[in-house]
Specification:
Radius of gyration: 17 Å
GO molecular function: oxidoreductase activity, acting on NAD(P)H, oxygen as acceptor; oxidoreductase activity, acting on the CH-OH group of donors, NAD or NADP as acceptor
Shape: globular
Number of domains: 1
Largest sheet: 7 strands, parallel
CATH architecture: 3-Layer(aba) Sandwich
Protein name: NAD(P)-binding protein
CATH class: Alpha Beta
Number of strands: 7
Strand order of the largest sheet: 3-2-1-4-5-6-7
Family: Belongs to the short-chain dehydrogenases/reductases (SDR) family.
CATH topology: Rossmann fold
Number of helices: 9
Domain Ketoreductase: 3-179
Organism: Exidia glandulosa HHB12029
Distance between the termini: 21 Å
Bound molecules: NADP nicotinamide-adenine-dinucleotide phosphate
């Protein structure tokens, strides 16, 4: 039987690309995001009966529960939805901005897992958390986003030891040409070291590269991957 994969943030960017690769491999998708874009609708039309779209907010427990309820067997989840605004240094960022980033990038992930764990345990399922290298190094102006991703990586390590029946992996998709990267160039550059922002923009890759990597991890990685934090270009990802 085709596995069912629940993905958050499939309306655009990396989530949309991953959804396309997962569908092409014959899996079914439940997609949760606030916007139903023409691109997501087109994928749903291309794979009739394989896509269930839930228009909802990842931070809202009711919306998350509705999406989880659609799965007979929850074989895998890709927790991709995230935000990177506002930018700012520790000295300048409003505390509510820090909280807003953690609300989506960390607390919504914990809430999702609490709601999904019974089904994930039953399916001996897989969790792929979309992280970022911004959680590994200090980068001026994007510290709140980076801290949320560093915490996400720790959540991954904790989940691996607490839930041995589940395979959990944290994944850095690379610097990717998406709306999030545009926002960094447009709104983050003033808060960042502009040379760092320009270097990141110059190194952007297409979303199909991490999209393929996410498909590999979600559908092909073994239980021995649990607890790992992997970059998009790691042979452990690309060779699957
Ligand atoms: N792009 C990069 O260079 C880069 C680098 C490292 C890591 N990442 C990570 O990769 C992942 C995807 O990033 P991206 O670049 O594809 O970002 P993006 O283009 O901004 O897309 C973000 C996705 O998340 C969804 N989303 C955001 N808030 C949501 C909420 N409250 N509820 C439901 N869905 C929500 C958006 O859908 P709606 O707006 O329709 O809800 C959208 O589908 C993120 O975890 C990001 O941190 C990206």
């Amino acid at each position: 039987m085709s596995p069912t994969v629940l993905i958050t943030g499939a309306s655009r960017g990396i989530g949309l690309a991953a959804t396309e690769f997962i569908l092409a491999d014959g899996a079914k998708i439940i997609a949760l995001q606030r916007t139903v874009t023409p691109a997501l609708e087109a994928l749903s039309a291309k794979y009739p009966g394989a896509v269930q779209i839930v228009k909802g907010d990842f931070t809202n427990a009711k919306d998350v529960s509705s999406a989880i309820a659609l799965a007979d067997s929850l074989d895998a989840v890709v927790l991709n939805a995230a935000v990177n605004l506002p930018y700012g240094t520790i000295a300048t960022i409003p505390l509510d901005g820090y909280r807003g980033i953690f609300e989506v990038n960390l607390f919504a992930v914990v809430q999702f897992l609490q709601l999904a764990l019974p089904k994930l345990r039953k399916a001996k399922g897989k969790v792929v958390l979309i992280s970022s290298a911004a959680g590994e190094v200090g980068v001026k102006g994007i510290g709140a986003y980076g801290a949320s991703k560093a915490a996400l990586n720790q959540l991954n390590r904790t989940l691996a030891v607490e839930e041995p029946e589940i395979t959990t992996i944290s994944f850095h998709p690379g610097p990717v040409k998406t709306d999030m990267a545009d926002t960094m160039q447009r709104e983050g550059k003033d808060q960042m070291d502009p040379t760092v922002a320009d270097a990141l923009t110059a190194s952007l890759i297409e979303a199909d590269i991490p999209g393929r990597g996410i498909r590999n991890l979600v559908l092909r990685a073994g239980a021995d991957y649990t607890g790992k934090y992997l970059h998009y270009d790691d042979p452990l990802v690309t060779s699957l």
